[in-house]
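The passage that follows is intended for readers who have already worked through the single-chain material. We present the inputs for a multi-component assembly, then the predicted structure in tokenized form, and finally a short commentary. You are encouraged to pause after the input and sketch how you expect the pieces to fit together before reading on.
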Amino acid sequence: MWARVITIALGIWLMVAPVVLSSTSVTGVCERTAGPVAIFVGVLSLRAVTRPLRAINVLTGMFLLIAPWVGSITGAQQVNVELVGWALIVLSFPRGPLGQRMGGGWSAIFQQVV
Amino acid sequence: MAAIEHARRLQEHESGASFASLPGAEDGADETQQKALADATPPGWSYNPSAWKERRWLVGLAIIGWLAALYTMLGQVGAVTLWDPFFGAHSSYLVTHSAISRLLPIPDGALGIVGYSADLLFGAPGCDERWRKTPWLVILFGLTIIGLGIVSLALTITQGTIVQHWCTVCLISAAASTLILGLGIGETLASLQHIARQWRAGVSLWRALRGTGLPWR
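Having made your guess, compare it with the prediction:
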């Protein structure tokens, strides 16, 4: 739960960060691309049924660590994207208690068919 | 031999014999009713994703999304000026009149109305056993909410990156779509599991989708 809440908060921060840190165009675009994705994935991962989707935020974090280097980047922006990028990756790992049973989840579909 | 067994089970299913043969079915109306309620939960699930208790939130959010889309479209055709307490009416105007919003021959607000209408059409009707009685409807619902969710995410990204302005009503619609996807997709999982079980038992995909396969227990 807490991992998802922090993920969503970081996503919102990414959407306002370009204004607060006056990010250059490339870094700003990266933050405003990664932000909505982090929120979308974070909200969906709140529920047990869609909890596996949290893995997507590993890619979101990696994108944030790599993509801004296409353009120029200043000290504050660099610290920001690296901290948030790594945080998104680390926060994708804890699964947390599921609380609900869902008949074996998504993999059960394939186990039945194959 | 398997075919005879299949036909027998099918006959039982159609005559309701399999339901009547459940233990305790003859003990008073109350217990039967309770049994029927418990029966609506998919096998292996701790809750019933098709229950109205679960789906009423989806319907509420879809109505909010539908109204937001209607309001956006009215703004796009010039009938109203969009209310925007956070980013200002001008910012909303730039978003709803951007090149992205005109990619289609119709304003994207109209596309939103179609999306949320489909959401209500596929998500609202049916009973607590939608997941097994009308799997085709639940799968159409699942495809609709996945589509709405992804389009909303893409539009939110374009607001920040391409248009570089924001629109409060558009963000409300995007939030509604995301919540609908998270709350609603469980039902599609239950239907897909049901179809997979039927498929494994030798029922054709067509029959499984129509919900006319073998008894589910």
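Commentary: Confidence is low (pLDDT under 50) at residues 1-27 of chain B. Residues 51-210 of chain B form a domain with the de novo design (two linked rop proteins) fold (CATH 1.20.1440.130). How closely did your sketch match?
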